[in-house]
Specification:
heterodimer, A: Arc Repressor Mutant, subunit A, 2 domains, 7 helices, 64% helix, B: alpha/beta, Double Stranded RNA Binding Domain, Arc Repressor Mutant, subunit A, four-stranded mixed β-sheet, two-stranded parallel ribbon, 38% helix, 13% strand, globular
Chain lengths: 159, 183
């Protein structure tokens, strides 16, 4: 990969136009009606840091990380790490299955909610979800997995 | 999930008000086509007749924090100019050029509305009478055409020579100003 040029940081306007709608959608899934203030805060934080970026790689994951931090702050989650070690086998979910369960994500604890939505709603790899949550990759996988199980239980309870 | 016009406008206004933007820009309709205009905190820094790679050009010149945002003062003065109600501009400028080009552009700004001058005379007034060709290059690269009126600079024979927006635009600006042109 040594011959691949490092992508330049694009002008902020291009970055903003590329991600503004998707980030608002993500924050609505996490915060509902409180999403708009969090959305503005997300792009203001991005703009404050933007001049110090060294390359244009992973900007999508980067802005999702900022949005996740803003959302978790908003949900008053002080403790960012997933403390509980998950000993159960990892539970994954198919895309179409997520569509059936998505309306229940509001009942999940904030970290699990963010992990599940980033994984199944936006297809982010666990390494990037870990960055967004400020946790290890294992903890991110455990949070999503635990969230999926909780969604399934809720779904079964309701049916 | 689309960001509404209101939400978008509020974000842009707050970003500018908090001083987080290196350079902001707007697109202004005019009788000579769309003008891409840009400003920093110091003042107007670019007017361009074409929008190709516009944000990238601004990022290279002023920093990556490029954001579209209304430039009402610039729009107002340009509208007045094209309506024939303004003969000189009061906008602060942010000119980032070397010493000689700066001297030439300062002299250029003094060429009166509706008058023309030659590359050679402009070179002489900037202190280098033999630098007509260099002055041609500086006119060609003028970062703020119209406001810095390089359309008023013509060849020694009165020929229009060249213009970033095309010779047709140069002729229209001079006609708007009522300049006497050679046939």
């Amino acid at each position: 990969m040594g011959t691949m040029a490092t992508p330049r940081v694009p002008p902020f306007e291009r970055f903003y136009l590329a991600h503004r709608d998707e980030v608002l959608g993500y924050l609505r899934r996490l915060l509902g009606a409180r999403a708009e203030d969090a959305w503005q805060e997300t792009f203001l934080r991005a703009l404050r840091a933007y001049g110090r970026l060294e390359h244009g790689r992973h900007l999508r994951a980067w802005v999702f990380t900022i949005a996740t931090n803003v959302a978790l702050d908003e949900l008053r989650l002080k403790q960012r790490t997933v403390s509980q070690v998950d000993v159960e086998p990892v539970t994954e979910l198919r895309r179409d299955a997520f569509r059936d369960l998505e309306h229940l994500t509001g009942e999940l604890p904030p970290t699990e909610r963010a992990a599940v939505v980033l994984r199944y709603g936006y297809d982010l790899p666990y390494a990037q979800i870990a960055d967004a949550l400020g946790s290890s990759e294992e903890a991110a996988r455990a949070a999503a997995s635990s969230g999926v199980r909780r969604l399934r239980r809720t779904h079964e309870r309701d049916h | 999930m689309n960001v509404t016009t209101d939400l978008d406008a509020r974000f842009r206004a707050v970003a500018v008000a908090e001083g987080l933007v290196d350079v902001r820009y707007d697109v202004v309709a005019s009788p000579v086509g769309e003008l891409h205009v840009a400003a920093t905190d110091r003042g107007l820094c670019r007017i361009s007749y074409h929008g190709d790679e516009w944000e990238e050009r601004l990022a290279r010149g002023f920093g990556v924090r490029v954001l579209r945002s209304p430039l009402d003062e610039v729009r107002r003065e340009l509208d007045e100019y094209f309506a024939g109600r303004r003969r000189s501009f009061d906008l602060p400028l942010d000119l980032r050029v070397a010493e000689f080009p700066a001297a030439v552009l300062r002299e250029l700004a003094r060429v009166p509305y509706g008058r023309t001058d030659t590359y050679g005379k402009l070179a002489a007034r900037a202190g280098r009478p033999r630098a007509a060709r260099a002055v041609g290059t500086i006119m060609n690269r003028n970062p703020i055409p119209i406001v810095l009126p390089c359309h008023r600079i013509v060849g020694a024979t009165g020929a229009l020579t060249g213009y970033a927006g095309g010779l047709d635009v140069k002729r229209r600006l001079l006609e708007l100003e009522g300049a006497m042109l050679e046939a």
